Amino acid sequence: MRTAIKTLCLILAAAIAASSVFIASASYSGDPDHGIVTVAIESGKTGEIVTATVYIENNPGIATMGFTLEFDFNVLEYVSSNASGAAIGGMSYAVSDFPVMVNNGKFRVTGYQITEDSSSGVLYNINFKVKGGTKGCNLMLSCEEGDFSRIGADYTPEVVDGKFIRELTPAEVELLIDEASGDLDEALTSLGADPSDDDIYEAIGSVQELFGGVEEEFAKAIEKDEDDTILDLLRDIEEKIVAANGDFGVITPDLSSVGDSELALALGTEDAAIEVVGAVLNNTEDQKITKLDIAPLNESDIKNNSNLPIPGAYSEAAIFPLEIKLYAEFANNPGESEPVTGTLAVPITITMPIPQAFIGSKSIIILHYKEGSLVPEEIRAKINENGTMMTFTVTSFSTFVFVDVDEDEMFSVSFSVRSYNRSNPITVQLVKDGTVIHEITEYAPAGGSGQFVQDFTIRGVTADMYTLVVTKPVHTKFVVDNVEVNKDVVMRNHPRSAIQVITLLCGDIDGNNLINASDLALLTNSLNYMKSTNESANPLADLNGDGLINASDLAILTNSINYMKGIIEEDYKK
Fold first, then answer.
1. Is 461 among the domain residues?
2. Is the domain of 368 the same as that of 238?
3. Which range is least confidently modeled, 79-88, 93-102, 356-365?
4. DSSP-based three-state secondary structure for 19
């Protein structure tokens, strides 16, 4: 059995590293003249769209920027890219997403602006379709000399690569559980009736070897295992170890910081003990696990912290944040407990009370903000039958935000947009009472210079009445009023063709939402007309995006469909 599970683990470890699907912590040199550029990506199933987001932290200021992202095109297929949620305002982007490049696993982005911006946060997003195959792939960032600059000074940021992991299929989860249970049974049996310390360390070592390199996979398998096969075996091994030698200790959470929080109220309920499984199995001869510290955080500290962004789908949901840290006494510093950092040798499963305000919730999502990442790992908590306790499994500790998700009230809005020029992004917004609730900005996949149709889906939309607003450079605004969301909305199914495919009017070079003589004058100006976009005074005059400003662009602008037209407004209910 050990040979079988080791073979599986080697296969998985060959495709992924021990680090999380989300980026690991970067070691910042402290140099104020350059920042850290990182890439984080969601996990995903075969056929799903996942987003790789590139961030900058410790930003010394950006006037220009550029990076290349390399990926395994056998695992991920490039779909589109966008600057949605970008922290740098006013940046103009250029992307090298032509087929030859992305089909060989490279994507290049550059950007520039007139002013200097020292904001930290999102730089750019790249969307991929999961093709399947191996368990995952590396996402490797590189920045050439001079890619990044402040006004008057170039610099090269530190880069931190990311890791994509394809989510396990039910069959893969079952295989992992079945084969792991055999090895864990062997470890349990090896302890015998009265194990020595050597026996204990050998058993712990065999468990750590089993999980080594595939901690994330096992964490997901434990999460999805309805029968708790692996969890029960880990619990049995730990109980036998502690019974033989109490020095290994049952890890009791330190709750001295809970105060009068929602967690403190929950701890006052019946059968509300906190159970920790897996901590004892992270002991080594050089590291003795001592405690698990749980401390509530203020909700305002999370919502006002740009380094801990709440995903848009959960922006209006109730949240409960906790700081959870695992401590150990290390051989090189005896008598002192220090936080355990990085990926755990064995995943730890915690069962704890549901905060009082969440009692009765059908679904709780846990956002885990791992060190060095602005994109949280999403963990789905298991809720017990009476709805008072929840269980979740992690491979590291830091900040956790518990989100009360009423998934029955979350819907999607899907629609298609027809426009010109793939080099310019489309921005779509769902607006409620003048406030933007959801926003997506995306570039189109590579293709020709004619009109094309691009599909969009906004997910995590709560039931309400919205206005859909679609904008794109050199096109006039398109507005759809009274979009009622009380189920998934598919605009392709609308009876009117104007809403089935939203067609943007092209030719608004001056950006005033009216295509008229002013735009015609800009296009035909000798500084622009019959020139390439690199030579012209106003590259926006290249309406079709073929790199030239010529009769083709003039024909688009003066077409009666576009000329002397402005904002289009449709009523979804009519």
1. yes
2. yes
3. 93-102
4. coil
By CB neighbour count within 10 A (0-12 exposed, 13-18 middle, 19+ buried), where does 311 fall?
middle
Is 23 part of any domain? no
The domain total for the chain is 3
Q: Render pLDDT for 215-225 as a digit per residue (tens, 0 to 9).
A: 888 888 888 88
Q: What distance in Å separates the CA atoms of residue 216 and residue 233, rounded to the nearest whole number? A: 18
343: which residues sit within 8 A by CB, 6+ positions away? Answer: 18, 19, 20, 24, 215, 395, 396
Query: Does any domain span residue 418?
Result: yes
CA gap 515, 499 in Å, rounded: 21
Q: Are strands 287-296 and 253-254 parallel, antiparallel or unpaired?
A: parallel
3-state secondary structure of 277: strand
* Domain endpoint, select from 123, 139, 165: 165
Amino acid letter for position 265: L
Residue 22 lies in a domain: no
Helix H or strand E segment including 207: helix 197-211
Task: Find all residues with CB under 8 Å of 179, minimum gap 6, and list them.
Answer: 1, 4, 5, 8
Q: Which domain holds residue 192?
A: 170-405
CATH of the domain at 439: 2.60.40.4130
Band (138; pLDDT cuts 50, 70, 90) = confident
- Taking the C-alpha atoms of residue 242 and residue 256, their distance in angstroms, rounded to an integer, is 24
Residues 211 and 358 reside in one and the same domain: yes
Tokens, residue 86: 């970008």
**Secondary structure, 3-state, 385-436:** CCCCEEEEEECCCCEEEEEECCHHHEEEEEEEEEECCCCCCEEEEEEECCEE
Length of the chain: 574
Say how far apart CA 273 and CA 270 lie, in whole Å.
8
**Is the model's pLDDT at 446 over the cut of 50?**
yes
Q: Are residues 550 and 538 in the same domain?
A: yes
d(CA 427, CA 455): 12
Same domain, 179 and 115: no
Six token digits for residue 180: 């792991």
User: What is the domain-level CATH number for residue 47?
Assistant: 2.60.40.680
